[in-house]
Amino acid sequence: MMRRATLLLALGSLLGLLCGTLLLGPKAAGAEAPPELRAVPAKPTASSRELSRPLIEATKKVRPAVVKVVTYGRTYGRARRQLVSGSGFIISKEGHILTNRHVLDTYLRLRSQELAGELEVQLPDGRQFGNIKLLGADTRNDVAVIQILDEHKGDWPVAALGDSDDLEVGELVIAIGSPFELESSVSYGVVSATGRAGLYSGRGGGEDFIQTDAALNPGNSGGPLINLDGQVVGINTAIQGNTGNNVGVGFSIPIDLARTVAIGLIERGEARRGWLGVHGVQLTAAELERSKIDSPGGFRVLRVEKDSPAARAGIPAEATLVEVDGRPLRDLNVLQARLAQAGPGGRVKVTYVAGGERRTVDVGVAEEPTYTYGIEVQDLDPTHARSLPPGVVQGAEVTRIQPGSAADQRDEANRLLPGDVILSVRWPGVSYRISSREDFETVMRILGERPPQAVEFIVATKDGLYRVMLELKEQRS
């Protein structure tokens, strides 16, 4: 009986093996792999490799200096965790890093709310540094500078800065950054256009973007756009479309503009902007045609400020500005961007039409005045915030009212005082929320263009919220 059972099991195993072989075919029986898989790998020809050589060499020059900028949080006693990340690149042996302001938005928000926000910089070679200082962040042009405070000074790989004004449409460019947390990723494409504007509204900083089809995705912000000489020509900043991912249309801040802003942030903690001293309106194509001005864009000057660069250059009121540095003024952003790029002490060539004649003048650029109406402010101090009504954690804290200024009013019941915290500024049809000194100064600049008769300030004090109505006149500080 035992033998029969053993024989049946053996026969069953043999039948199973035969059936399996028939069903699975010859591959399961150990057939050899095709010879193509065992062949010696094909090598690229010298000519094909050389076509890629400029891209390879340019990437090698800059990639070691491109960093990942990470914001960590320890909110409400929780463990340290990563909240958001972006890119940046080292621009000096002292560890200065250029990036976008919006890459630091979460960190700045945490800091303003007295929560534990931390910055960390991660290099491609694996080094990580958490002793980071924010030197300045500029909302108007979306540029920021941070610095690694470490004993390795002088040991940093540095990205060379190029000349964005020299870029040509169709030129090959390379984008480097950390899209989707993928550090040191490289993509390439061409310069699709230059001088793009209108991506943001209400910032008043001037836009002059480089458009590229090099793939940009979330996490690329703050990283460099470079040319084939391995020189940075832009800061990758924005993506076109509603998906938030690459659709072949990305935008970079020209490095010539970012350089000027960065110098101000490093030296003074704020951007120094160029100023012409003209006020006016953008003309439509129909208005230009009626005025018999042959130009794709124009800016009609309604007022020239006394002793301004425009006044010294002889630009009259009612003139129509049509070009700056050879670029048509299709949008006021072009003029603002060129002035920001030139910076105080720089020069721009302005072409205008007046009395039917076309003239070009060389204008020395001055520093943009800050219109504050005598109100000096700082970011709300977290200690002071504890004495304010619940929920008030951001704002512009008044530090001084200049004697004799528009804000120096005698009405004790309707005036701003040091220690007041400005939460919003309103005038007919307009309302701006104020979260910082930078917000306040931006609104003051807007007011300086066309001062209304009266402005309402919503203010927080230890006793609650109240309104201050000021009769404002244009004033420099």
Structural key phrases:
10 helices; 477 residues; disordered N terminus; globular; Thrombin, subunit H; alpha+beta; 7-stranded antiparallel β-sheet; Pdz3 Domain; 6-stranded antiparallel barrel
Describe it:
Helix content is 22%, strand content 34%. With 477 residues, it is an alpha+beta fold. A hairpin with a 2-residue loop joins strand 27 and strand 28. It is globular and about 95 Å long. The termini are far apart.
Summarize the structure.
By secondary structure, the chain is of the alpha+beta class.
Global outline? globular
CA gyration radius, whole angstroms: 30 Å
CATH topology of the largest domain: Thrombin, subunit H
Give the count of structural domains.
Answer: 4
Number of strands: 28
CATH uppermost class of the largest domain: Mainly Beta
Would you tell me the overall average pLDDT?
84
Question: How far is the N terminus from the C terminus?
Answer: 112 Å
Beta-strand content estimate:
25-35%
Task: Catalogue the unreliable spans.
Answer: 1-15
What's the architecture of the largest domain, going by CATH? Beta Barrel
- Spell out the CATH superfamily of the largest domain: Trypsin-like serine proteases
Biggest beta sheet attributes = 7 strands, antiparallel
**Biggest sheet, strands in spatial order?**
5-4-1-2-3-7-6
Helix count equals 10
Portion of residues within helices: 10-25%
Structural class category: alpha+beta
